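ARCHIVE CARD
Drawer: 12
Card no.: 0347
Subject: one protein chain, sequence and derived structure
Cross-reference: see card 0346
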Amino acid sequence: MPASPDQNDDSKLVVCKLGGSLLSLPGLAERIESVLEEQGRSRSLLVVGGGAAADIVRRWSRQFCLSEETAHQLALEAMAFNAALVVRLLPQSVLVFDDSEIEPAWREGLIPIVHPPRVLADLEARSNLPLPHTWDAASDTIAGWIAAMMDAQKLVLMKSTDRPGRFWREAANDGAVDAHFPVVAQHVRSIEWINLRAGSGDR
């Protein structure tokens, strides 16, 4: 399993996942910055969800009877589309295309934002943790999988709602996370849920 970039005991990688539904949130850039500062901005890695762009892919998948692999790759491109927006909203950020670019971004004081198609292709080539290429493994699972692969200290889920229930299976049944997330969550050290619309957090 790939190690996270140059970690030490005092400064561990934190993967922060921004839900795609939050892209319509007023003051989004400031809210993201606030979360990253709380988590230790200098060692944060941002993953942006697919949101409405991924919903279009879901409709295409049904309309055109796309294969699961094709739909998966298009959904990753939807996440990349949203990441391209967020990198423009956050002046001190940069898209990263493989994990070797994360540490240089930190050294320059930048927030690395994952380009999912490229980063996943790079990590999956070295992975011993399966990542299903289905709708059951959407952006929450992808962020969790990245956190597990890179041995992150924590995964932070920035969401539009409060966390439903105590267990991840409850959240999946409620549709608050995707169906495969409870599986990948077992491989993540720590997970924090933040309702970004309410500005409250729940570990």
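Annotation on reverse: The domain at 25-202 is CATH 3.40.1160.10 (Carbamate kinase). Residues 68-89 form the longest helix (22 residues).
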